[in-house]
Amino acid sequence: MSAANTTAAPELSLKERWMPDRVTRRVRALAWWVFATQVLIIATGGAVRLTGSGLGCDTWPKCTADSFVNNPEMGIHSYIEFGNRTLTILLEVVAILALLAVWRFRQQRPDLFWLTVVPTLSVLVQAVVGGIVVWSGLNPYLVGLHFFASLVLVVLAALLVLRVYTGPGPRRLVASAPLLQMAWLATIFGFVVVALGILTTGSGPHAGDGGALRNGLDSETIQTVHVVAAYGTLLFTLMTLFLARRERAYSVSRWAGWTIVVILAQIIVGIVQARLSLPPVLVGLHMVLACLLAAGVFLALVETRQPSRGSQLR
């Protein structure tokens, strides 16, 4: 046996492990972590609102006028609100690690670079927006904007996960005009239904604090429009799935099928929560599903374009 065969391969340095020159298992794992933490912050943010803990820390950036952290005398609401604030540290750490992981091949994969830059910078921006929400006494429109921004970050994190499994380079349209139109309509309706859901919640009982104002909209009317938009999203997504399967656009059909499952779950949860007078657990589940719905319709639209032939998976 030759010396070349008996010599063990050199271990990767710390820099090579955390800053590889291509997409590796570590890069893919970090992309999933970015996605998971973005969904998690929405779930915990929902818990803050649905437990009436929105003003558990009554100022920002401090929790009280005298302390950055809560104290036992402030009660359970302060722990819930402070815990949600603390979670942003985890988001920032994960985002920075993901950014470092793609740094060395950022020129070859600018899509991955920018999709990791956004969450890295957005944590601070979202923290400031959250502070403004607290200063406003939980203005329902600012609360809704805060949630919608978080939803967009979930969608971009989902795109990051998708892109670490696909090749670089230019993309070409692989869908017919009718399929592309249906995918666009499904995406537009998907985001509209989320926006209407935010307005519906802003008119309902879950203000985040007993003294917070509501948006003044008629709950029954806005809820009806929200439901109509939800069924419109389902219809256009079903049409997207049908056309994608007929054209053998399997990537599009996969995401359209996933979205249909989420929409059906949303509809069931929405009906049940309405009949049970909006229990917090179901409202929170509805919020998380809304993020997955938006991600699903968006990825179905994205997949109407595929890497041009000759692109290499990196």
From TrEMBL:
It comes from the Bacteria. Coiled coil: none annotated. Pathway: Porphyrin-containing compound metabolism. GO terms for cellular component: membrane. Keywords: Cell membrane, Disulfide bond, Heme biosynthesis, Iron, Membrane, Metal-binding, Oxidoreductase, Transmembrane, Transmembrane helix. This is Heme A synthase. It comes from Leucobacter insecticola. Pfam families: COX15-CtaA. It is a multi-pass membrane protein. GO terms for biological process: heme A biosynthetic process. GO terms for molecular function: metal ion binding; oxidoreductase activity. It is found in: Membrane.
